[in-house]
Design brief:
CATH topology: Aminopeptidase
Strand content: 25-35%
Oligomer: single chain
Distance between the termini: 25 Å
CATH class: Alpha Beta
Shape: globular
Radius of gyration: 16 Å
Number of helices: 4
């Protein structure tokens, strides 16, 4: 599927919309009302953004677009020692269409050209781990919630 990447700012409302769609699928099963759900999602989004700014003071945010429709976002960072896939979101209807694979292959090529590993952190129960493993990522650190993965070109 053909897609384009467009530069985004960290405070763009569309980033919250993507986050809320993505997390909303997960927390909808909790049985909360819409007001509680939106309050919780807004709080979680603020915490996530603050955490990203602290961990990766310089990061690159791009919107993923298909035919001028925003279908996701990609956040990456570069350090002296590695490249980092900080976050990737695709809306439900655009998952499993090859977009994530193509984006990660692109990031792997950029890391390879720089002679650096590509790292990411994923929730232990996230189904995307299958994709990461298929693309050559291996776990180098685990904790109760996350697996930290690395691809070495």
């Amino acid at each position: 599927m053909r897609f384009t990447l467009e530069e985004a700012l960290a405070d763009e409302p569309v980033l919250f919309e993507l986050f809320a769609q993505n997390r909303g699928e997960e927390v909808a099963a909790w049985g909360w009302g819409e007001a509680e759900l939106q309050t919780f999602l807004a709080m979680q989004f603020r915490f996530q953004q603050q955490s990203y700014r602290m961990q990766f003071p310089v990061s690159h945010i791009q919107l993923i677009k298909v035919e001028d429709q925003t279908v996701g976002m990609l956040r990456t960072a570069a350090t002296e020692s590695d490249r980092v896939l900080v976050d990737i979101i695709l809306t439900a209807s655009y998952r499993n269409k090859g977009i994530g694979t193509e984006l990660i292959l692109m990031l792997q090529e950029e890391a390879r050209a720089a002679g650096l590993p590509l790292k990411l952190t994923v929730l232990r129960d996230n189904l995307a781990k299958r994709l990461y493993k298929r693309l050559g990522f291996t776990v180098f650190l685990e904790d109760e919630l996350y697996e930290h993965m690395r691809w070495q070109g």
